[in-house]
Design a protein that fits this description.
The structure is a homodimer.
Chain A (H helix, E strand, L loop, with lengths): L12 H8 L3 H9 L6 H14 L5 H8 L4 E5 L11 H12 L6 E5 L6 H10 L6 E4 L6 H8 L4 E4 L11 E4 L1 H14 L4 E6 L5 H16 L9 E3 L4 H14 L4 E5 L2 H13 L9 E5 L3 H6 L2 E4 L2 H13 L9 E3 L2 E3 L10
Parallel strand pairs in A: 1-2, 1-3, 3-4, 4-5, 5-11, 6-7, 6-8, 8-9, 9-10
Antiparallel strand pairs in A: 10-12
Helix pairs in contact in A: 1-2, 1-3, 5-13, 8-9, 10-11
The structure holds a DNA duplex.
Chain lengths: 342, 342
DNA sequence: CGCCCAAGTATGAACGTTCAAATCGCCATC
DNA sequence: GATGGCGATTTGAACGTTCATACTTGGGCG
């Protein structure tokens, strides 16, 4: 960092102490244990703090307290191109909540070849004293490593590999899809098909289960021919949706595991000269900007709440062990799931 | 932060010094001024550093060096819904580059009612020693305040209000649109219209100028009826694009000031039972995920390069004053600007 | 042979804060 | 009137590093 001289040297705790005719420790107490300070002294010191514009020096505090009051959050340049700015949004919400816990967020981008090294490094340097994980993959090395080294962390996303670990918040995708099905039935669609990802991904399987449950709750039965799967690719999704629409009858709707799949469904609908909403209901997942732009109904993850919960879990006392939390998403209803134009 | 005991107390510089039979200062020199250390000593100390897994304590360094080697980056929960994920992407790239400068990035979210307070606070606490601004608005108070307090900063986006300040990187939107026009003409479209925002926004006006210049360079003249404007709203954009298409002849193309406007253009094209690309060319701006999903050609900002330049500017010597940099975007060609199917 | 210089290394102090323990003043109690 | 105790405040030390300076060693040179 280029060093330009600051206009004025920062005021330190000693400057305040001198000005208020007390010792440094008393000033420290005013800030950290105000109950331990006599009212008159308290007021006098606070006035001087304000007058001098004193702010404690973070590094000095961190050094002495042996904790940084910061959490690390990994950002990933590669995962960025796939759909969904959910994780970006999560970072923002994490940052918004941080001040309430007198903390801050340090972003870091590991070398893809050795992700753990980045965690080790940033932790050893004392820059953070915990992490918030996101985008936990199958056979993710991070949770195990962190646990083994007794590093505090919380994951946004279930820890599928380590069922004994309860330090996570996630969104109940199953409930979200279930709600989408209920909404579509309520809106008057007579059949509800599912367009998902190929079986095998925990998230995708969970969403599919929500669809099956939703059908069951609505008293509908699945003929078995009312689902299709596709990878996260627009053309492939469009083709899958076309096959699916060919098998579904009039007045059907499609629930999709992602907004991109839903976009494929919308194209398929239009290719058949039908109109989304009026002729075929479509609901996506994640409520990305694509959904907003296309007026696509979509299941929205409560990202801000997830961030709040993550902080609470991270700062909660270690015993009793924190309890994993599953948040319920909400449905953003737009034109593609309204059968009759309003 | 919940304090759980670390598995082992961190190794300090003194531990390394003892193990290598040298003084702490020599260890410090090994890390910071290796040229000042005798080869044999260097090697011995480095071996101990590796063996003990020593990493310097960031807070101690920051305290002593009087600088934090960190930059602050403001994230904004409101601005998030508009404007694509360009800024999220910029933050990621900023973070990726940070280690090369032995720095890191601290994210923070100011109270919207007093943005400056957040900058003052985070600066006074010594958490960062500079800032990277983004999303600089008209009559933005931040650049002025930072300059006045001699705080190092760089802006991603021109500082429209303060033409004398050169500490910014931006993307030459004008050149991007010019290139888009050239590409469309090359691809065989005979007319190129423009769908922009209402006049008055510096960014929008700049992009419109690029269109006009592009026409001129291609030897085309504007009949004056070949542009329309709309706010950043899909329905409004669709209507505007329909009006525009009504006035343009066969084999026309539309360059848009944003991907959302382009999305409106795509809808307008389909509403006229035409096919984007084959019948009407469309190019958007920002290459958001919407563009990728819709197979929309779009002008892409070189975000990673902007982040690199921002770091370089921030760390450059103060004299001579840094020179503002205008980066040239690239055109991502997809189906909507290919006249004949490949 | 003594002197000086440079390279290499070591020492004391400082950065700004909080912890742990000591001190001070005051009142209640015996 | 001495004693104990308690609330309020102060003092010394420590956190882990780097700056400024001092010291040591060996070689070149007059």
């Amino acid at each position: 960092m280029t060093v330009r001289p600051m206009r004025s040297p920062r005021a330190t705790i000693v400057d305040v102490a001198d000005a208020a005719q007390v010792s440094r420790q008393t000033v420290s107490n005013v800030l950290n244990r105000p109950d331990k300070v006599a009212p008159a002294t308290l007021e006098r010191v606070q006035r001087e703090i304000l007058r001098l514009g004193f702010t404690p020096h973070a590094s000095a505090q961190q050094l002495r307290r042996k904790r940084s009051s910061a959490v690390g959050f990994e950002v990933n340049p590669l995962g960025h191109r796939r759909m969904g700015h959910i994780l970006d949004e999560f970072l923002v919400e994490l940052t918004v909540v941080a001040p309430r816990h007198a903390s801050h967020v340090v972003a870091f981008a590991p070398d893809p070849d050795d992700v753990i090294a980045a965690y080790r490094q940033i932790l050893a340097s004392g820059l953070v004293d915990g992490f918030v994980l996101a985008d936990t993959r199958h056979t993710d090395p991070r949770p195990g490593w962190l646990m083994e080294h007794e590093v505090p962390f919380v994951s946004f996303g279930r820890l599928w590999d380590l069922p004994e670990l309860q330090c996570w918040v996630d969104v109940d995708g199953r409930a979200g899809v279930r709600a989408a099905v209920a909404h579509l039935v309520e809106a008057g669609y007579e059949q509800v098909g599912f367009l998902g990802w190929p079986a095998g991904s925990p998230v995708g399987d969970d969403r599919r289960a929500g669809w099956a449950e939703g059908l069951h709750e609505a008293g509908l039965t699945s003929p078995g021919s009312d689902e299709e799967s596709s990878n996260q690719d627009l053309d492939e999704a469009t083709a899958a949706a076309e096959r699916l629409l060919g098998r579904l009858g009039q007045g059907a709707a499609i629930v999709c595991a992602s907004d991109l799949l839903a976009l494929g469904a919308l194209r398929a609908v239009r290719n058949l000269d039908l109109e989304p909403g009026r002729d075929v209901g479509v609901v996506g997942f994640d409520d990305t900007e694509v959904a907003a732009a296309m007026q696509l109904s979509s299941v929205r993850q409560p990202v801000a709440e997830a961030a709040r919960v993550a902080w609470d879990m991270l700062l909660a006392p270690t015993s009793p062990e924190p309890q994993a939390q599953l948040l319920t998403p909400t449905l953003t209803v737009r034109r593609t799931s309204i059968r009759r134009a309003p």
